[in-house]
Amino acid sequence: MHSHPRLWKISLAGVLALRHERRATLVDLRPPSLFKARHIKGAVALYQDEECSMLGVNLDEIRGRNQTVIVYGVRGHDVTALIEHLGNPVDLPRFFDGGIDEWLSSGLETEAGE
Description:
- The chain has helices at about 10-20, 30-35, 60-65, 80-85, 100-105, and strands at about 10, 25-30, 40, 45, 70, 95, 110.
- By secondary structure, the protein is of the alpha/beta class.
- It has one domain: Oxidized Rhodanese, domain 1.
- Strands 1-6-5-2-4 form a 5-stranded parallel beta sheet. Strands 3-7 form a two-stranded antiparallel ribbon.
């Protein structure tokens, strides 16, 4: 398990419940090329560049819209880089550890493109 101890985990059921209530924004931690190939429908890409060094989304802006930020990558994704980018925010995102793998294996909707 590579999840960071400071992130709160959320289950697939928890993700689906928040999305149903329109209270969550999913943020994809994978490189942009993988995001463009396939991502959870409605998710936004965290990074603008393949080296994953330039943030492409403002997490504080998402929180300002009263949305819970849920980050995901692939199952067991290492989120240490995300924590380094965020510094020490009071409200850390929820971490969907099953990621795109669990989403796909559950037959849930994905999309391609930006």
